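Kindly inspect this chain:
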Amino acid sequence: MDDNLDRDVAELWSALFDIVTDGEKRLANHFESHQLTPPQFYVLKTLSENAGECRIGDIARDHHLTSATMTGLVKRLEAMNPPLVRRRRNQVDGRSVDVILTAEGRARFVAVQRGLIDQLRAVFGLLPDEERRDIIAKVRQYFAVFSQQFPMERL
């Protein structure tokens, strides 16, 4: 048994757990300051990444939710004043519903994202260039190795 490896694994696990739990709390507070829940933000993010339009079933699948749950999320975004999304029947498949990001929804998404980037910028700005590049390289290396060793299909 390698005591150094066991110690390092325990230390990394602890650090990652702290980062994830702290990040979840900070994200929830940030989203709340923009009158959004985390799932609502992720819907806006998905729409933004898909040119502002996506089938409701596809969004649900992407987020591992049922269509009924996603419909509830979308309805709440649609009911906001002003509405952040709107729905319409899919023009090709009338059984499907498309969700469209409104201008207000896009603006809210950008505002949330800008706030998060500004926070990261403030923290990263405290570090010298070389340290920032080293952190990025090590994180990318870790995730590349982890992804190769444990592909998502096996989880």
Notes: The first strand starts at residue 53 and ends at 55. The mean pLDDT is 93.
